[in-house]
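Researcher: I'm comparing several assemblies side by side, and this is the next one on my list. It has 793 residues spread over two chains. Same procedure as the others: predict the full complex and return the structure.
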Amino acid sequence: MAVERPIAPTKVKIDDLINEDDRLTKLIYSYLVSATVWLIFGTFVGLYLAIRFIYPDFGVAQWLSFGRLRPIHTNVVFWGWTSLAMIALALYVIPRTSQRPLFSISLARRALFVINASILVGVIYLFMGYNNGGQEYREFIWPAMMLFALGVISHTLNFYKTIALRGTKEIYISNWYILAAFLWTIVVIVIAYIPWYQNALGETVIQGYYMHMGVGMWFTPLVLGLTYYFLPMLLNKPIYSYSLGVLAFWTQMVFYSLIGAHHFVFAPIPWWLQTVAIVFSVGMVITLTAGTGNFLLTMKGSFRKVARSYSLPFILVGVIFYFLASAQGSLEALREFNQYWHFTNYTIAHSHLTMYGFVVFLIWGGIYALLPRLTGKEPSHLLIGIHFWFALLGLLIYGFALMIGGTMQGKSWIEGLPFIHSVELMIPYWIWRAVGGTFMFISHIIFAYNLYKMKPLTHLHKKVDLAGEQI
Amino acid sequence: MKLNFSENHKLLFSVVFFGFVALSILIAIIPAIEVNSNDPMCGVNTLTPAQFRGLKIYVSEGCLYCHTQQVRPLPLDKVFGRPSSPFDYSYLTPLDQIRMTPAVLGSERTGPDLSNIGNRQPSEIWHHIHLYNPRAVVKSSIMQAYPWLYEIKENPDSNDLVIPVPAEYAPKNGKVVATQKAKDLVAYLLFLKQKPIEGISQVEESSSKNLTAANRGAQLYNTNCASCHQQNGEGIPMTFPPLKNSATVNSENIDKHIRTVLFGLKGEAINGIVYPSEMPAQKDNLTDEQIADIINYERSSWGNNGKKITADDVKKIRAEGK
């Protein structure tokens, strides 16, 4: 007797809808739409660049050259897509865990406008070849970055007020991480854009600090804070340990602040600074073991639930990548490995495994957990599955191609072969990178469609009679 | 008073904020102030207006995303020059009111390091051909072409800098002429010459002691000579002379060949052609053994059959001087 076999395992439908203020739902959705527009644009640029590596004479024009598009790719996916998506989720999580409505919706609405304007201005200038001295992730000139900082500051006020007026005795651990990320990022931007101590190698020291804190004091704590909410919510049980979360929090703040210089190991910056960075890079293992352990122990015994949900797999993958890719970063900081991997494509693999495998997967898990409950509309489960597998497969192809290729590059330099040899040997790996990138890009298109499917109804909470008039 | 972080938001977020400010001052601002120095220590290290404009193009075209300018104190970096020292960067200041100090140290080597490119590749013409289309001089290069730094002119003036791009890559009609921007960028690239520091050798030692002399010669040739004379020894017609079937390379008289490599050559007719670029002197870049390995490789490759030489021959001519 033939059995009906569905094309994909069935996932649980959502029935616990949240009745949330309509204005907040729309605001969160508009944040996510902005973020997704930047995602499509930013990763399209990234894919184009991946193809440029294989066909260097493909589309030669001044504003299509690698030197102009590379900072556009990085800054757009950093400040446009990832930051806006994280803020969107924080707009829900902070009021929810503080048991109090958001302090000011109009302030948050204005901040969206300001942040989008900042990215638009920054990108237009980058297209014109006007970058801030080619300082990675700091390429937005100060007028553009000031707008971004303004957006961050207004969210900081908004969230601080919301937490200060909370309806609970304790501050939930998510809010430690999320608000701290905002406070730290203000400090990082201000320090990075004051020019007085940034001549000659002063710039290099600040660049190491900045490029690391941009990741470690903005993306990492913010997305971990969100996960401290979404994971227990989806599993319907408390987080394994509040104290582990607190331990990870303080070590994050102390250790992470000190390891910026590991981006400049062997550079002519002070040797002690490099050593401190390397020592605490290893210390970071404590932080990420505490964080990962906390998440995995929360999941323990509920893996059946993970398999039946369509948002939890994203979070599981994100947690695994958090551990593996951060541990990889600690390894790369060691002088022995740094000799081998510094300046090679291995670094690019690492940055994608962390920013994409860890941060972006956790964000997607959060979006798929939250939006259907807010709007009452679910996208097709099959399409979410395709999004998940294409993104994961693409990332794995990308990551492994560049990790293997990068190691081969380092090996060829150490053997003293002519430099051009390391370019020739990378060609097949660059082709694989473009293949992986294509998978990732397709998954983003599907995600954009899924987001459209979760659009809130404009009359969600209004009763409508048969004549279509409001009662 | 009990420190209760989880219930006292003022306390928690003050510690979070000011704690991070304090750590940042310790780990970033104070070390940055310590090395925030424009003191060149030895010799002048400032840019001419043309070189400064060139630096701005270097930054806006994003050269620093693929090319580092830091030679690490590691054996594998010796091919690029002596280890970088803080004063190499003393010329770096903010570009203008809007743009800050450029991050020339870089973080990625998709292309080779440029700390010492002015010494390693002093030929202005080579740089122009390479910028117009990198593949014209390095076959498997994946670098961007920068044709917009050049104009195509039917009838260049006498004061135009005409770039002798090989036919395969040249435009169908007209001549390739360098714009001011291209000249500025090349001026900056040629400014990148490491100044000698006492006690640190400029000369790279071969990082591959265990290779045979022939393999060492091939490797040294490909690293130091092939970008002009090409891996096949054929050079680039009218721009860089061929070594294949060259009279000097196949001659019984080794003196001329060694002299050319040691002290360079300029403006001399080779087979009736006067080449526009000069052969750079290698006496400060390579040891006697290395030069002997290269010369023997040239004399036994691509069908050449010249008399072999020894490191002592090179030593003798080096002692005689130019």
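Model: For your comparison table: Residues 208 and 263 of chain A are 6 Å apart (CA to CA).
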